[in-house]
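Holo prediction — zinc ion.
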Amino acid sequence: MNNNWSDEREVAPKPFGFVPFPSAVKRENTVGQDKVLSGDYVSGRLLLQVEARTHLFVASGSYLLGEDAQLEVPVVAGFYRVGGVPAIPGSSLKGMTRSIVEAVTPSCVTATNARREELPIDTSRARDGCRPGNACPACSIFGCMGRLSKVRFGDLRPPSEPPVKTILWSFKPLHNPRPSTTSQVYGNQRQFAGRKFYRPGKMAGAPDETPVEVLPAGTKLFGSVRLWNLTPAEVGALLFGLGLDGTLTPKLGGGKPRCLGAVTLSAVWFAPFNPRNWTRIRNLGSTLKEHALQSWIEQYIGIARTNQYLLDEQVAALREILRMPTGDAVCPADLY
Ligand SMILES: [Zn+2]
C-alpha cells in the first residue's frame, strides 16, 4: 500500500485503503431481540455525540430554490431534514457502523456491487449463508434474513440552540469505480483485496462546480442507539464500530472520496434497560457517564479483542486508514 497518497501527480493517489478479509467467517447460534434477557446480556440506550471534522453532506433528494434559500445560485441539492431541521438519518450511522464491524470481525460479506466470482471468497462467506441459528457477528448484531437487528439507530440531530447553520460547498462530481476494469487497485486476478474505506483528510473543493448544501466542519449532532441482548463481545464490536475507542475518523454521507463526511464520535451516557421492565430505564443511579462510561467502553472492547471477536490484524489495518492525518493529506479534487 502506497502511503504517499498526498503526492502531486497527474492522477491523484487513491483516497482509500483496504482492510484485508479475515481468513474465515465464524457463525454461532446467537439470541435475538424479542425479549430482554438478564445475565451477561447487555440492553440499553447509548447517547452519542457526533462531531463533523470535515463538512457533512447527506442529500435530501430535493432541491432548494435560490430565492427561498436566499442563495446566489438557482437550485442546490438540499441537506436531508427531519421536521425542517438538517439531520443525519439513523440508517446512515447504521451503515457506517455495520461496515466497520463487518471489516474487523469474522463476518460475512455484504453490500458490494462486485460480481460474486470476483470476490476472493468461497460461497460460505456470502450473506445468504447466515441464519438466526447460525449467524456471523455482523448478522447477529445488525440482522439478517429471519433476524431483526438487535441495534436501532435514531436520527442524528443538532441541539435546538443555537440553531444549526448550513453552508454551500462545491466539489467535482464523483465517478463510480468499476471493479472489473480496475484490477490493479482491487487486487490481482480481478479479486478484491479487502474492504474499502475512504481515508479522512483535507477537503478537496472545486469552486466552479454547482454547490450543495452541507453542514460545516465543527457541527455537533446528537443521537441514540438502542441495543438489545448483545453479548459482551458483541457490545465491544459495536462500540468499536462506532469509533468510540477514539482511534477512528470514519465517514458518513456523501462526497467521501472528496474527504467530506469525516466524523468523530463520543459517548455521552449509557442507560441500561431493566430486564423485568425494559420499557423503562432502570434508574438514574445506573446510568453511566464520564469516567465510568469510558472505562465501560474500554472494558467491553477489551473483551471483544481477547475473545478474537475483534481481530487484531483487521483492527490495525482499519486504524491506519481511518486515522485523521496531522499533515496536509488532501483528498483528490479530480480523477484518482
Ligand atoms: Zn453474516
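READOUT: The pocket of zinc ion is lined by residues 107-108, 127, 130, 135-136, 138-139, 144 (CB under 6 Å).
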